[in-house]
């Protein structure tokens, strides 16, 4: 049993507790571009709350327009959320007091690497081996209704707890819970992921964070202080008609420091950096600073030969098309705008070009493969910068298990 916080005095523990509680309970403003309403959600997000008994369930009644007719229901739900946050906070502090005497941090495994390198398969194997649960750190797999192009693991059939995502008998948290029309920021991810990790630890299980979104991973490992700038709807709408190249050029002029460090091929990342820089008047990167670590983290990177990785990507895209990617994209297009960050992500963007008659299906598939290969290469570049990552082939399961056993014993 372990806790996620490291402090060195009673004063720092108290301050930390106040910060955590304030962060967990702070309402999150989101905008549904589909209906244009601004909605408020609890600190746990619209769809999910963390129950201290280990259940994840849908929080009915949290979604509302600003002109809500039944404020009492919102207040009641907010108080329930507050109670759960307080219980988790008490648990954190008690365990921390015990662990701080031994100068230890709770153990969390991170499995990282480029797309199609075998992260999902390995994470499920390790979860079964070491009594773990998975915390998703893929910024596209958070979305509901978007299953094929995001390469989500196949959900188990049969009875499951409401809104729980289980694949091959392993629980996956932060998977398939945000509508494609909703905003979900890095700060939202960090807040929810930390609470979920603590909840997993409270049941004596091992959290295994899995994904290729570098900022998601580093926000947890380095305990990043993330700018708390709310989504600026008017500003975002003013950027709708601008191309990615135009947005990148604007970012380089406004915040050159950030332009050197984020993925400039990711429209959502560029938009968020612009939003923070313009709204706050300060660089996005300069506001994203590291804090004392919360976890004893073991980072396992998926080492994969480039030629084999590209072949994996090409084969997976072919399989995704055969599995109904066109039909899935058509359904999404009937409900959501193409310029949403979720709809403009790899796979849906290229098939969207085909559905709008801009290119042939063959060309769309080739672009899907090419852009995925380019993305994988960028992922490798980002993760290679982190010298803390231990790179191992996903096929070397024995070596991986030995690495985990040694880390668990020594630490």
Describe the overall structure.
With 411 residues, this protein is an alpha/beta fold. It folds into two domains: 10-226 and 288-304 and 380-410, P-loop containing nucleotide triphosphate hydrolases (Rossmann fold); 233-285. The protein is 47% helix and 12% strand. The chain contains 15 helices and eleven strands. The chain has helices at 10-25, 71-100, 119-129, 186-202, 214-221, 233-239, 244-254, 256-259, 267-280, 284-287, 306-322, 325-333, 348-355, 361-384, 397-410, and strands at residues 28-32, 37-41, 48-50, 56-58, 107-112, 132-136, 165-167, 170-173, 206-210, 296-302, 390-392. A seven-stranded mixed sheet has the order 7-8-6-9-5-10-11, with helices on both faces. It has a two-stranded antiparallel sheet with strand order 1-2. A hairpin with a 2-residue loop joins strand 7 (165-167) and strand 8. Helix 1 (10-25) runs antiparallel to helix 2 (71-100) and helix 7 (244-254) packs parallel to helix 9. The longest helix is centred in the N-terminal third of the chain and has 30 residues, at 71-100. The protein is globular. It starts with 9 loop residues before the first helix and ends with a helix.
Percent helix: 40-55%
Q: Please describe the biggest sheet, giving its number of strands, its sense, and whether it closes into a barrel.
A: 7 strands, mixed
Q: Uncertain segments of ≥5 residues (pLDDT<50)? A: 1-22, 27-71
CATH class of the largest domain: Alpha Beta
Q: Mean of residue pLDDT?
A: 82
């Amino acid at each position: 049993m372990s806790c996620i916080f490291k402090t060195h005095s009673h004063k720092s523990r108290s301050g930390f507790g106040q910060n955590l509680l304030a962060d967990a309970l702070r309402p999150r403003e989101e905008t549904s571009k589909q209906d244009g309403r601004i909605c408020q959600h609890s600190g746990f997000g619209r769809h999910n709350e963390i129950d201290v008994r280990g259940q994840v369930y849908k929080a009915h009644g949290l979604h509302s327009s600003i002109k809500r007719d039944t404020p009492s229901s919102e207040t009641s739900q907010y108080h329930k959320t507050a109670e759960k946050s307080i219980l988790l906070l008490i648990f954190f502090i008690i365990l921390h007091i015990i662990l701080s005497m031994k100068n230890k941090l709770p153990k969390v495994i991170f499995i990282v690497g480029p797309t199609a390198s075998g992260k999902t398969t390995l994470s499920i194997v390790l979860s079964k081996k070491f009594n773990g649960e998975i915390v998703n750190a893929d910024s596209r797999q958070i979305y509901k209704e978007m299953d094929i192009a995001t390469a989500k693991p196949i959900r188990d059939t049969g009875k499951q707890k409401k809104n729980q995502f289980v694949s091959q008998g392993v629980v996956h948290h932060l998977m398939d819970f945000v509508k494609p029309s909703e905003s979900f920021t890095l700060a939202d991810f960090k807040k929810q992921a930390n609470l979920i990790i603590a909840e997993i630890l409270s049941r004596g299980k091992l959290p295994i964070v899995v994904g290729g979104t570098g900022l998601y991973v580093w926000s947890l490992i380095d305990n990043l202080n993330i700018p708390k700038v709310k989504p600026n709807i008017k500003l975002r709408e003013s950027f709708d008609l601008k191309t990615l190249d135009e947005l990148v050029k604007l970012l380089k002029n406004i915040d050159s420091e950030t332009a050197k460090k984020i993925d400039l091929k990711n429209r959502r990342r560029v938009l968020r950096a612009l939003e923070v820089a313009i709204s706050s008047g300060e660089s996005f990167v300069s506001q994203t600073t590291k804090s004392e670590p919360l976890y004893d983290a073991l980072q396992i990177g998926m080492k994969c030969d480039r030629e084999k990785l590209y072949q994996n990507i090409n084969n997976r895209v072919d399989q995704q098309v055969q599995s109904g990617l066109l039909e899935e994209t058509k359904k999404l297009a009937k409900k959501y705008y193409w310029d949403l960050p979720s709809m403009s992500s790899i796979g849906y963007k290229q098939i969207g070009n085909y559905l709008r008659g801009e290119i042939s299906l063959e060309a769309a598939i080739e672009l899907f493969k090419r852009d995925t290969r380019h993305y994988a290469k960028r992922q490798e570049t980002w993760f290679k910068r982190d010298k803390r990552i231990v790179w191992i082939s996903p096929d070397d399961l024995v070596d991986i298990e030995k690495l985990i056993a040694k880390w668990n014993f020594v630490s």
